[in-house]
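Renewal narrative, Specific Aim 1. Our central claim is that a sequence can be written position by position from structural information alone. The example that follows is taken directly from our test logs and has not been curated for this report. It begins with the structure tokens describing the chain, in the order in which they were read.
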């Protein structure tokens, strides 16, 4: 019987200016993204990009979403990822955004 485990899947992690893997679905597991929180604690707006798989057009969940100075973005919903899929994220301004992702792993 499958077991569901609610957990923080990534972060909090400070994003760089280039796409980097922030989460990999474990083998024999399905992950459900439930909440994505991106915080900008700087005095300038910064953009946020998140992709399933390597970053490229057609794989992005968020593409250069502007997050204002000293504000945040919260998303909630259901996005299913299968075993070995990755999430990659980056900020248009290195070290401006902090990412935290919560969800459910089913093994």
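The sequence written for that structure reads:
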């Amino acid at each position: 019987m499958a077991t569901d485990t609610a957990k923080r899947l990534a972060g909090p992690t400070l994003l760089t200016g280039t796409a980097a893997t922030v989460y990999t679905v474990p083998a024999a597991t399905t992950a459900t993204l439930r909440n994505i929180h991106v915080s900008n604690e700087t005095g300038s707006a910064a953009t946020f990009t998140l992709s399933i798989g390597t970053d490229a057009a057609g794989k992005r969940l968020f593409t250069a979403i502007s997050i204002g100075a000293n504000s945040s973005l919260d998303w909630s919903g259901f996005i299913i990822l299968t075993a070995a899929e990755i999430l990659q994220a980056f900020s248009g301004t290195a070290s401006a955004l902090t990412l935290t992702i919560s969800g459910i792993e089913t093994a």
